[in-house]
Amino acid sequence: MRGSPLLLCGLALSVAFAATPEPAKAPPLPALLPKPVLAKPVNDRFRLTERTRVVALDATLLDEATLLADELSRNLGWKIAAEATQRMNPGDIVLGLDATLKPEGYRMRLTGTRALIAGGTETGVFRATRTLLQLFPAELLAAAKPAKAPDWSAACGDFEDQPILRWRVLDVDAGFFHKPKEVLLRDLDPMAQHKINVLRWLLNAEGNWRLPVDKHPELAEAIKGAPRSYEEERPALRGDELALYQSGRPHGGAYTEAEIKEVIAYAQARHIEVIPRVRLDFALEPEDRALQGDVLETLARLFPGEFIQVDVVDHPRLPEKLAGPGFKKVLTDESLAGAEAARVWLQGELVKQAAARKKRLLTRLWGSTAEELIKPGTPKGAIIDLLAPGRATQEGTTKALAEFIKLGHAVVVSGVLDADGEPVLNLAEGERDPLLLGVASGAGSSDLALDDYRQFPAALTLAEWGWSGQKGFVHEDFEARQRAIEPRIHAQGVRSRAVRPAALFALEFGKLPRERDGTLSIALPEGATPGPAVLTASAEAGIRAVELLAGDRVVSRRPTSLRGDGRGAVPFWRLQVPAQSGNLRLRVTFDRRDAPETEGTLAFTLLQGRILDEYAPAE
Fold it and tell me: pLDDT tens-digit profile of 176-203?
């Protein structure tokens, strides 16, 4: 009897996996992120040649095979073919299905003659291909074709992997800060490469409607013709999003339906789910309820996925709305105790309206303590988006998470990382609970460079934590892998700033080794190379100037300059390291010899080479 395509795929790959010998010694594998459950190196190289094909043993994998072939062909100089066939040749990359694996799980073996991939579903196969691409040189996916072709080969080994959490959610704030479609499309590729599988897309905020709402063209019309970014209007305030936001000017325009569909299609091809998110005012008048229904209808029509998110936020004229007849009628008809009970009721109604449109609704709850989050009640059937306010309230957040799960709610925990990509919440003990759907982090900006800076390193930490889990997370190992993969991300045109440059030195203010004249003198590490350099400090600290000395001779001196980086003032000094770079030291002069010490730590960082171009602040 002829077997099913799924069974044939499993048998073919099982035989192929079992047939490969195990070498005794092998060089280490390249840095992989997220880190697989198993990554065992084999002493061989798998090379791409003009005979290489991507073979789909099951016809349902042809889309994944075609995408991988196109990606591999980008900078090769020849075209790799994709075929759906049961015939495997030496040099092929073979994709198959294995029903024993979980949906996103995969096994992969690379030898000198073949690459074999088996996934639990098409998604699992696709995740394996992202690991495969990380094993090749960075030039393979570079935005620009390399001047000189490298050795187009990948390190060989055996790999097994599957995610800890179902969702790894990157938040994109296009409500406050418009993000052009082209940037969204660009960001989907590094998301997929690092196995981030949900793009949560905020489509309105503070009167800026990016969503073309059915029956309400006036919402998009209100920001039509506005600049696509604040920087086009106020170049002197480049990067200062807070001041621009406070100016109250419309920021950017609305997306067209065609743009939204293009983003969704591009994401779906990379097994990324797009969850639209909107903020609706807490208002219960008939015209407000009608708008709420029209927004839900638009989301259900434009977004084919199972999930949508609607957050109920305070209306700009909330006291007026609470005094309105619609609010009073709901309180009477539903026997509600007050405003917070009415808010929960409205959230519940939105859950029902979404269900009527065959959608599941996420909604965000705010509060700094578990009591604030839980006391008003929860909307039945909603998936709770729990915002982690910060390290100081970790206990309250984890307690609320446990309570929501006890009530039967599925939960997504958002804001789990700070701007530097550091976790603000420890979820290691509960990360395997099936009702903890995933974790989310992200930011937004109209300035592309600032957006990349905000998005990374948080997105990489999110990928690692959401896929591999927080339990067993070793920061030193993770940071080493971040540094190793950063050139690959940069080659693709993303100014990731995945890992900040290491500090030259960091000293407690109360223990600064000052000279008798009040200056600070510290030797420069031997790693400094001749040429331009920028020294930055973590705080202003009343520093007047910095000098670079060779012995007792001043070779470079600069007064303090300040530049905003979107989060505060950065003091910096442009210096010139001389050709004879031995015995160098820095001399830091403060405004006053007896100036009171500031609390905390003063850290200096020296930027040179490529990293100088990426991090140095502009004057």
Answer: 777 888 888 988 999 999 999 999 999 9
- 3-class DSSP state for residue 344? helix
CA 5 remoteness from chain centre: 36
pTM of the model: 0.80
Query: Cis peptide before 501, with omega less than 30 degrees from 0?
Result: no
Residues paired with residue 274 on neighbouring β-strands, in sequence order = 199
CB distance 534 to 616 below 8 Å = yes
What are the tokens at 156?
């060989």
Question: pLDDT tens across 280-326, in order?
Answer: 999 999 999 999 999 999 999 999 999 999 999 988 888 888 999 99
Q: Is the CB of residue 402 less than 8 Å from the CB of residue 384?
A: no
User: ∠ CA(415), CA(418), CA(424), 5° rounding?
Assistant: 70
Report the Cα 426 to chain-centroid distance in Å: 18
Nearest to 583 by CA among 555, 556, 608, 551: 551
Q: Which residues contact 29 (CB under 8 A, 6 or more apart)?
A: 39, 41, 135, 155, 157
Question: What SS3 state is found at 524?
Answer: coil
Hey, is 612 helix, strand or coil? helix
N- to C-terminal Cα distance for the chain? 75
Phi first, then psi: what are they for 403, rounded to 5°?
A: -70, -40
pLDDT in tens, 513-550: 677 777 888 777 666 778 888 888 877 778 888 998 88
- Which amino acid is it at 239? G
C-beta pairs of 348-351 under 8 Å, 24+ apart in sequence: 348/379, 348/380, 348/381, 348/382, 350/280, 350/292, 350/296, 350/310, 350/312, 350/379, 351/379, 351/380, 351/381, 351/382
φ/ψ (deg, to 5) at 151: -75, 110
How far is residue 109's CA from residue 265's CA, in Å, rounded to a whole number? 30
R_g (Cα) of the chain, nearest Å: 27
Tokens representing residue 534 in the block: 């920028």
Q: How many CB atoms lie within 10 A of CB 461?
A: 28
Backbone angles phi, psi at 460, to 5 degrees: -70, -40
pLDDT of 598-618, one tens digit each?
A: 566 777 777 776 555 545 555
Please give the Cα distance from 533 to 194 (Å, whole number): 33
Identify the DSSP state of 423. B
In sequence order, what DSSP letters do the residues of 532-547 get, joined into one string?
A: EEEEEESS-TTEEEEE
